[in-house]
């Protein structure tokens, strides 16, 4: 049974790396044109936060090596994406991205690590971090909706995507 779980975990990690790699074509285009065009940085900033928290969860949870390693790959890839945004965005989008990075990827991540390290102990710590990560996943997969306009069709399509 344990070998089967390992195989499923490795397959899941491979799929997750492919998901992290899916925007490579977009970022190749951004680097070549030296412009972020109309792309939004929020999905990448939020995914960087999520990946960082999943690394923390993986190193906190006994037996969480697969979670920590695949999330570590996600941290590296998302950090590259966010860096490209900071390099090639318009000044206004660069400022917005920098604020998001400071608030979420530094501030929120630091607060979660600090609070759970100091105030939550034992198996409850792993559960609290896991719940935060699970909730954040909803935002990660919903963050592309930030680029949609608020209209009836957008609401319906966004709801379908979220479900």
From TrEMBL:
Subcellular location: Cell membrane
Pfam families given in the database record: MtN3_slv
Membrane disposition: Multi-pass membrane protein
Gene Ontology cellular component list: plasma membrane
Top-rank taxon, per record: Eukaryota
UniProt family annotation: Belongs to the SWEET sugar transporter family.
Protein name stated in the entry: Sugar efflux transporter for intercellular exchange
Native organism: Musa troglodytarum (fe'i banana)
């Amino acid at each position: 049974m344990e070998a089967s779980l390992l195989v499923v975990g490795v397959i899941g990690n491979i799929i997750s790396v492919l998901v992290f790699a899916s925007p490579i074509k977009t970022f190749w285009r951004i680097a070549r044109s030296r412009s972020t065009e109309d792309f939004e940085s929020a999905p990448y900033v939020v995914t960087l936060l999520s990946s960082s928290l999943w690394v923390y969860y993986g190193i906190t949870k006994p037996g969480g090596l697969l979670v920590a390693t695949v999330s570590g790959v996600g941290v590296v890839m998302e950090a590259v994406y966010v860096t490209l945004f900071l390099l090639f965005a318009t000044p206004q989008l660069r400022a917005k991205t920098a604020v998001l990075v400071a608030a979420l990827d530094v501030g929120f991540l630091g607060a979660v690590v600090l609070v759970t390290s100091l105030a939550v102990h034992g198996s409850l710590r792993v559960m609290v971090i896991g719940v935060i990560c699970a909730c954040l996943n909803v935002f990660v997969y919903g963050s592309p909706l930030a680029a949609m306009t608020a209209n009836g069709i957008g609401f319906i399509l966004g709801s379908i995507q979220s479900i």
